[in-house]
Every structure is written in C-alpha cells, then in structure tokens.
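Render this sequence as a predicted structure.
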Amino acid sequence: MIPFLENKRLALIIPVYNEGKALISNFKEIKRILEADEINCLFHFIDDGSKDDTWQVIESLAQSHPNVSGIKFARNFGKEIALRAGIESIDADLYLTMDSDLQHPPRYIKTMIELMATSGADIIDGVKASRGKESFTHRFFAKSFYKVLKSITGLEMDNSSDFKLMNRQVIDNLREFHERNLFFRGVVSWVGFNVVTFEFDVDDRKEGASHFSFGKLVFLATSAILSYTSKPLYLTIISGVIFLVFAIIMGLQTLFNFFFGHAISGFSTVILLILITGSMIMLSLGIIGVYISRIYEEIKRRPRYVIEKKL
C-alpha cells in the first residue's frame, strides 16, 4: 500500500449513464490496475437515471465486491449533479472523481496520490495533455469556451476535466454550495486551496459511445458562464450606450437637415438602425430572462436530485 494512504479511506466517485454494456469490463480493468498498484479504495457509482440495465449491473458488482456502493437517481439530472451527489453520499478521507469509460486512465491514480503526498496539495487537478479522438468541431468549441470563460470569470480551466483528487477539507467546503445549476469543475476551481495540475493523455473508449453531444456541450458552456459571472448583463448597458451615441448623431443630423432645408433621405439607414436596435433589445431581454429563470429555480428550493435506490 502507498504509505500516504495508511489510515485513509479513498473513494472513487464514478457517475454513469446507460453504461450497462461496458461497466463490468471497465470496472474490472480499474480494479485490476488499482490492485496491481496496491491501492485499496471504495467504488461509489452514481446512476444518473439510466434507461438500460446499468443499475442491475451495479447491484451485481456490489453483491460480489464489498467495497462497491451506489445510488440511483429517479431520473436523469446530469453529470454535474451526479458528481455533487457522489461526494455527498459517501464518507471518506480522499475523493477521486473520474469517468467510467476509462478515458480517465486509472493507471494515473497512483501517480496522482503520490503527487498529493509529495506536494502537500489539497487538489490534484487532472488536465488533458491531449483531447484524444475528438472531432474538430468539438475541439474548437471546447478551446474557445475555455478562453471565453477565462476572460469573463478569470477561471483558468483550459483543457480541464473531472479527473480530480481532493482531500476531505475541499469536499467539506464543496458540500456548502447549494445552487441548483452547478458546474462542478468551476466550483472546484473557485474554492481555491493548494492546487497542483497533473497532465494526462486521454485514452479511447474501450466500449460504447459517448453520451455527451455537441448540444450538451453548448448547454454546459452556457450554464458555466451564467453560474460564475453576471457580466453578460452588462451587455445591455454597453449596447444601450452605443445606440445612445448613434441616436445623438442621427438626431443632430436630422436637426441639421431640418434647419438648413435639406431633403431628408436615408430611409434604408433608418430601417437598418431599427432592426439592429430591435435585435439588441431582444438579445438583452433574453440575457436578463435567463438570469431571472436561474433566480426562479433557486428560490423554489427544490432538491437538487431525487434518489430512488441506494446500495
């Protein structure tokens, strides 16, 4: 056993969604590598409302392995909420969040633990050295999103992932966050503490296909920006100032033409300005509406997730 893990409980938080076909083989591979590295841990699965036999597979694993536990959501709440539920529903000293599809390679877990021991870090933040076999569109959008997020919120999250090792102090602080719309990586970055980054190469999925579509990536990006900054609201002020300047210029031009007897022309310009102004007003109202909807979701105080079954 790694000396750092003596008298410490390590929990692997693994969210799953419709992974029934690949879960057994992936679990065996993770378990094989950890046993070879002499790492004892708890496997905690969060079934995010799967429609296949994922929960039955988790039950069978729990029956044959005493260090396997899990919870099942009553419906799909999303990976971010699943990660939050995972750290809330099991007691440990160290928590490692990872995907079940082996794209977060378990061979790096020992290195991350040793890095935490030698550096004294509170968080070992897994950062993708390469993004694997992602499409050009996905890769381009991901990089653009992280640049925009950094410029707006100041959070440095380029090529970040949910592959993280955290101590109990960090987890206790993460449990204090009560917002419904949660961006897990952003919360971990926001809390601070002593963070050491660890670069890893993303492995290919052994079985199955990713459930993370481009549409979900867009939704996650939007949710992350709205959750960590109110700066988009200032677009309404900025656009208002810009069009106020335009209005003053056009007003002066109109008065000049009126007093000097020039024929008033430029109907196309007026129509164009009306269309641009109208679109900016609708955009501003849309941004305000999104923030109001977030406020509405928060004040309802509904539970973040509903657990149907526990192991």
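Summary. The beta strands are 10-16, 42-47, 68-73, 94-97, 123-130, 160-167, 195-201, 307-310. The longest strand covers residues 123-130.
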